[in-house]
Here is the input.
Amino acid sequence: MNIIFSTNDNGVCYLLVSMYSIIINNKRSELHFYILNSGLNDKNMEKINLLGDALHIKISFIKIQDKLIKGMTVKNNAVPIESYYRYLSPNILNEGKALYVDIDMMCTENIEELYSTDLEGSDIGWVCDSMVFRRDDSVVKKLGFDETTKPYFNSGLILMDLESMRNNKLTEKFIENIMNRKKLIPAKYDIFNDQTIANLTFTNSKKLSMKFNTLVKLFDCENIKYKPVFVHFSGRHKPLTFYKDRTIVYMDLYYKYAREIEEQISYDVVYEIVRNAGHKTTSYINN
Here is the structure.
């Protein structure tokens, strides 16, 4: 299974936990992690490699050249430029299929069912972002999206048919749409950085089960009875900073995984996560 992450140096502590959570729940699977980055320092690359070596996992670092994202800018400080890297995957990975995962996601179950999903001719598979429809003044509603007839998807987890995406030149279409975002989205509604553009670009997509990308804030709104395969600490709801009755079990599991990593590579992961939680922005997270 090919798993794609994108990060900068500030996000490595989260990346390690996300990687580890996938590895520990998929021990019988052959995993290959692709780390798309803007140039990680040697110490952080060593930490990632140490974890890969300890658990016998193949890791490939791919430094994204500035020319590939020339002219692309982010909308706010909460999202880093690395958030665009996932959409370059068809053109930089020589693979037929891959799963992109945000670094603020934790795996709790085996992902074979997810990875083997038949996309039935779709370019990608992803999960509907139900939280954006909660408010009556929802921006995405004003853009014409609807939970039933025209769902709005969360870009934190994307199952990619890379070959189909290449054939349909979707990377090029995404970049073109980013460059022309002012024509596509009224400025007052353009608040989700890459996500709305991705929804406007990847229209040939398959809706996946909510269990594959459960936003942690959803636990506050619904009595979730299924067991999530991935828990997504999106927005401000970051790991170890959102302790509530319905989510504490996942925060504790996250903490457990972080401590197990520390035993493997002698790196204070928990300290880095807590230190980052004190930052005023979340620009080290893909959101």
